[in-house]
Design a protein that fits this description.
Chain lengths: 354, 268
């Protein structure tokens, strides 16, 4: 008797779990499909339009007259840079938001992006560097800024709202450094730096894809491998520790990984507005908040950047950098997330900080 | 499940950032019993519980689980024997009840461990024991305070540990739900032999539900033993600084504390 009740209740659990797993998997598969479609579109569309068949042949290494240069040398590195940077921004943003249990705690809000940006502008304007060399300056700077924010915040039971406030302060300071550098710079460099600061894929060439991929791939692997302990950390430090998680080690690895990804992506494309901030909440809406948010958020980030870049390039008479489009898209989304009736918990949390 | 796990605290000193809260404390938790820790605010009772749950490393002394120092035992191994319900756990937004409870299975998995039918069974058992099976697919956000507390207890139960530590599991609950939660924990103890250790604020509920009562004062043990031995006017005066009469609880036979305040005292 009691065993049959048990079997029935186990069935309830199993069915519910499978349904949620299936939903998450469907979301991930759809995002991958959309990403692939956008990627292919980015290769085909432009001044000259090539067929997907020709574009794929170029990707596979065949020589196609005309397409080999346009697709192989211009569009492919651009699409790869966009996808990698979007993936990195989305993953880093969701990691921070989940870890700090606060939507506003994404790296573009708490000053880490500003740190990498200020360093990159310094590299471009003062040191006269470009391309790969910018990475060498921007990545350590991002890590350094994260460290400074952490030290300023550190006081038993570190994280949360304090970190967001300190981060916003540090970010404001670094933005003024950037402005100062721009004021002092020669006009040509300013234009270059400004385009970069808006977040742009137009200077993406093959020599930047290598270092970006070399950083993004292993760091993403580390973060995605830590999904399970991260879901334990979502329950609070005490619960996570009681569940056998090494809280400090896992958190340090997650923070370093996310900071690294942010700095890499910022160095490659500039701070593409709102991608880190939006990917997590959007992905959560899609999956319904079940399971780890990391992979769906990363894919959402890549989709957002590629889609916004296509819109920026072709939807208007003038070409806009990708950051202008994500900014125009992101700001209303932020307001909607905060203001929408019903699901007020997110808004309450955000208000608790501001 | 066995009731043979022993949890002992030996000459332990616990504190935060140089401030000593508990010092030189020895305590043996009786296996298979319900132990309740009571004391005034800031007396160190929660600190003691946190120390036993290895959330806090002792500055001196040690906490032993089956004779082994829990701070020198792999954390996942401890997590399979010792469960904890902290004071204010947080549920991720939008998570379903069954998924939250499933996270209690974490210590039984490796980093890439697969979900097994045994995990589904453990979750179903935990939800059944706490009476929230019919809420399995609901979002935790939508539950009432009492339901949510049951779900958190279910999460700790899904961990399937022989020892369960709870830090004020009845806070924020109305009296009906307080009794419900304490009855539930008593069921667990009686049906499965789980060793239950909890901090409670309400002295009368503590006296009723404890097999073993531990009174803490200024970071040291004041008295331990059966409620009838520990709960006396003298203890209440010393531990809580409160003048009180103690009578026999007509419902349970346990001691019942009646505080004597400055007002509303009969003069005849």
């Amino acid at each position: 008797m009691s065993e049959s009740i048990e079997a029935a209740s186990v069935e309830v659990i199993r069915r519910g779990r499978r349904r949620r797993v299936r939903r998450r998997r469907t979301v991930v598969v759809c995002l991958v499909a959309v990403l692939a479609a956008l990627f292919l579109t980015s290769l085909c569309v432009g001044h000259t339009v090539y067929s997907p068949y020709d574009a794929l042949r170029v990707v596979l290494g065949e020589t196609v007259p005309g397409a080999s240069f346009t697709v192989g040398r211009l569009r492919l590195p651009r699409a790869l840079t966009g996808a990698l940077a979007g993936f990195a921004f989305g993953l880093a943003g969701a990691t921070f938001q989940t870890l700090l249990r606060n939507m506003l705690a994404s790296p573009d809000v708490i000053g880490i992006t500003s740190g990498a940006s200020a360093a990159a502008v310094f590299a471009i304007i003062v040191l006269g560097l470009g391309g790969t060399a910018v990475f060498v300056v921007a990545v350590p700077a991002g890590v350094l800024v994260a460290l400074v924010i952490y030290l300023l915040t550190y006081r038993q039971g570190v994280l949360g709202a304090r970190l967001v406030l300190v981060g916003i302060g540090v970010g404001a300071l670094l933005n003024s450094v950037t402005s100062y550098l721009l004021l002092r710079a020669p006009a040509w460099d300013v234009q270059e730096a400004m385009r970069w600061l808006t977040g742009s894929l137009s200077s993406a060439f093959w020599d930047g894809v290598g270092p970006l991929a070399a950083g993004v791939v292993p760091l993403s692997a580390v973060l995605l491998a830590l999904e399970r302990p991260l879901t334990a950390l979502q329950l609070g430090d005490d619960s996570a520790r009681a569940l056998g998680t090494r809280v400090e080690t896992v958190r340090l690895a997650l923070v370093l990984g996310a900071v690294g990804l942010t700095a890499l992506a910022t160095a490659a494309t500039g701070p593409i507005a709102f991608v880190a901030f939006l990917s997590g909440p959007v992905a959560q809406r899609l999956t319904g908040g079940n399971g780890s948010p990391l992979l769906p958020a990363a894919l959402t980030g890549a989709v957002l950047v590629l889609a916004a870049d296509l819109v920026g390039q072709f939807a208007f008479d003038t070409r806009f950098p990708v950051g202008v489009v994500t900014g125009a898209l992101g700001a209303p989304c932020l307001l909607w997330l905060l203001a929408r009736p019903g699901r007020t918990r997110l808004a309450r949390r955000a208000e608790g900080v501001l | 499940m066995s009731a043979t796990r022993t949890l002992t605290v030996e000459a332990a000193r616990f504190g935060y950032a140089g401030r000593i809260v508990v010092d030189g404390l020895d305590l043996r938790i009786p296996p298979g019993a319900v132990t309740v820790i009571v004391g005034a605010n800031a007396c160190g009772k929660s600190t003691l519980l946190r120390g036993m749950a290895r959330l806090l490393a002792p500055e001196r002394g040690s906490v032993l689980l089956d004779g082994k120092d829990i701070h020198r035992t792999p954390t996942r191994q401890v997590a399979r024997a010792l469960g904890l319900l902290p004071q204010s756990p947080t549920a991720p937004e939008g998570i379903a009840v069954a998924d939250l409870v499933a996270r209690g299975r974490t210590p039984h998995h490796g980093l890439l461990g697969r979900w097994t039918p045994a995990d589904d069974e453990a979750v179903a058992r935990a939800l059944t024991a706490t009476g929230v099976l019919d809420l399995a697919d609901r979002p935790v956000d939508e539950l009432s305070g009492g339901q949510r507390q049951r779900v958190w207890i279910a999460t700790a139960l899904a961990q399937e540990t022989d020892v369960l530590l709870l830090d004020e599991p009845t806070t924020y609950l109305d009296v009906t739900h307080q009794v419900e939660v304490l009855d539930l924990l008593t069921d667990l103890n009686r049906d499965r032999g789980t060793t239950v250790v909890m901090v409670l604020h309400d002295l009368n509920l503590a006296a009723r539900y404890a097999d073993h009562l531990v009174a803490v004062k200024d970071g040291a043990l004041y008295a331990t033993g059966a409620a009838t031995e520990v709960v006396t006017p003298q203890t209440v005066a010393d531990v809580f600084g409160l003048r009180a009469e103690v009578i026999e609880d007509p419902v349970s036979g346990a001691p019942l504390v009646l505080p004597v305040g400055r007002h509303h005292t009969r003069r005849d």
